[in-house]
Design brief:
By secondary structure, this protein is of the alpha+beta class. The protein contains 13 helices and 31 strands. Helix 4 packs parallel to helix 5. About 5% of the residues have low confidence. The structure holds guanosine-5',3'-tetraphosphate. Guanosine-5',3'-tetraphosphate (G4P) binds next to helix 2. This is Peptide chain release factor 3. Belongs to the TRAFAC class translation factor GTPase superfamily. Classic translation factor GTPase family. PrfC subfamily.
Length: about 525
């Protein structure tokens, strides 16, 4: 039996966040390549295979061409056991994407060097900040023409409000990309367009003080590098592990995932700068990952879209101790002892049944419909709850109408169950009954999923009428009289399933106006569970 302490200490669990096309998939593939989990990066995401080849959990989703899944990949590298949480983007961006970040101990932010900070990165970043987790930046696609390096850093600092500390520095970009200078070791790694998708063609290293460097990078780049080093050493924030740990300083790396340049340098530094799973807050206090017995929380529920199988998979993040398949555990919210059924993990490309797993790992278990997002699982005899998972702001709203009003009961049952699983949020107009239901989603694909599932699982046909609202805030004041609220013309008052009041607006600036008009009003961007 493996030693629990060393198993937990070697774990690193992180999410990769980015805007679509910045290179998240390519970078993940290269990580796997170094971990020896795959032999050739192209085998994960070849041209012929679907984009989601590695990430998809559910065959059924692939058949339907819809992926609502965030996946987890585990691999070993250099003595570490790494869990990468994928945060799906594109049209499958959903509340699950945010929830995945609740299970990570740190985040890697991939930025396209020619684009800087983009919309989806901004949204995901907010969640990382809320959690105060360390954020590492990988500025990708240096083999293409990039924005000015100082401007890129400035963009991150201004747009995201986080200080940056470049660990290495690029020399040129695009056709003129010569390599990166590592500030700590004062060494320059020379860029060689490696054979795509392989580890071959190891880059050459040379000291920045070596007379040969000028030859390698050319006179102009050499001069520029010297100037930039001087500027950088005088102006940029110094590396401070404590600030990194608190998520206040982001170490920045430059490279090109596609040509596999700068990936291993990044991985090595990153693994050293991140920590193994940290204690997590529960209602009885802080739970130590090593000293305490097994405990976990559910951060995502994956419904099976196949009508014939109503089962679901509940994804849990193990927070402490060791999990053994077949052991008896206690589901706190359900107040029941049970065995976790068919626990699974994703190793490189394959899903497999786990015999044991440790704090930091993610397991997916068969869920007959008993778990809810945020639930705690621990050992029998213990009883505590991890902090709940917040409700994230939907950005798209639609009014739902039933085609056949006779099926009211099935409709309410279906829509409520789907909302409980966390795929959608439902609201009612303030001061009216259930007859008018407004659905809010993070990604528009969820509307399609809702329609499909109501039809297939509950035999209810609906029509969705899109509403123009895009912004939502929870009202934090417990005693605020909503009837007296002075709003804006594009505002609507709604309430959630629990009766909590919320406000939705068409325009973002109206939020500020509403605050101005109602002194004392407190609005929150995340809803409490
Ligand atoms: P994502 O997961 O963040 O959405 O991005 P992904 O890795 O799929 O990369 C998006 C596109 O950018 C891909 O090209 C990929 O090959 C390319 N790319 C990723 N990293 C780099 C890089 O460092 N340099 C350059 N030049 N390109 C990079 P595609 O043509 O859309 O896909 P594919 O046909 O290559 O699969």
């Amino acid at each position: 039996m493996a030693d629990i302490t060393s198993e937990i200490k070697k774990r690193r669990t992180f999410a990769i966040i980015s805007h679509p096309d910045a290179g998240k998939t390519t970078l993940t593939e290269k990580f796997l390549l170094y971990g020896g989990a795959i032999n050739l990066a192209g085998s994960v995401k070849g041209k012929a295979t679907a984009r989601h080849a590695v990430s998809d959990w559910m065959e059924i989703e692939k058949e339907r061409g819809i992926s609502v899944t965030s996946s987890v990949l585990q691999f070993n590298y250099d003595g570490y056991c790494i869990n990468i949480l994928d945060t799906p983007g594109h049209q499958d961006f959903s509340e699950d994407t945010y929830r995945t970040l609740m299970a990570a101990d740190s985040a890697v932010m991939v930025i396209d060097a020619s684009k800087g900070v983009e919309a989806q990165t901004r949204k995901l970043f907010k969640v990382c900040v809320m959690r105060h987790i360390p954020i590492f930046t990988f500025i990708n696609k240096m083999d293409r023409d990039a924005n000015d390096t100082f401007e890129l850093l400035d963009d991150i600092e201004k747009e995201l409000g986080i200080a940056t500390c470049p660990i290495n520095w690029p020399i040129g970009s695009g056709k003129e990309f010569k390599g990166v200078y590592e500030r700590g070791s004062r060494k320059v790694t020379i860029f060689k367009d490696t054979e795509k998708g392989t580890k071959e063609g190891m880059a050459e290293e040379i000291s920045v003080d070596s007379p040969e460097l000028k030859e390698f990078v050319g006179e102009d780049h050499y001069g520029q590098l010297m100037d930039e080093i001087e500027l950088l050493d005088g102006a940029s924030a110094e590396f401070d592990q404590e600030l990194v740990d608190k998520g206040e300083l982001s170490p920045v790396f430059f490279g090109s995932a596609l040509t596999n340049f700068g990936v291993e340098i990044f991985l090595k530094h990153f693994l050293q700068m991140t920590t193994s799973p940290l204690p997590r807050v529960a209602d009885i206090g802080v739970i130590d990952p090593i000293k305490e017995d097994f405990s976990a929380f559910v951060f995502k529920i994956q419904a099976n879209m196949n009508k014939a199988h109503r089962d679901r998979i509940a994804f849990m993040r193990i927070c402490s101790g060791r999990f053994d398949a077949g052991m008896e555990v206690y589901h706190v919210q359900g107040d029941k002892k049970q065995r976790l059924s068919q626990p699974q993990q994703m190793m490189a490309q394959e899903r497999h049944v786990v015999d044991e797993a440790y704090a930091g790992d993610i397991i997916g278990v068969f869920d007959p419909g008993i778990y809810s997002i945020g639930d705690t699982i621990c050992m029998p005899g213990k009883k505590f709850c991890y902090e709940g998972i917040p409700t994230f702001a939907p950005e798209h709203f639609a009014r739902v109408r039933q085609v056949d009003t006779m099926k009211r009961k099935q409709f309410v049952k279906g829509i409520t169950q789907i909302a409980q699983e966390g795929a959608i949020q439902i609201f009612q107009e303030y001061n009216t009954g259930l007859e008018e239901i407004i659905v809010g989603v993070v990604g528009v694909l969820q509307f399609e999923v809702l329609k499909y599932r109501l039809e297939n699982e509950y035999n209810v046909e609906i029509r969705l009428e899109n509403l123009p609202y895009e912004h939502i805030r929870w009202i934090e004041n417990e005693d605020f009289d909503l009837n007296k609220l002075v709003g804006t013309s594009d505002m609507k008052k709604v309430k959630d399933m629990k009766g909590n009041p919320l406000l939705i607006w068409v325009n973002s600036w109206s939020i500020g106006m509403t605050l101005d008009r109602n002194p004392g009003l407190k609005l929150a961007e995340f809803g409490r569970q």
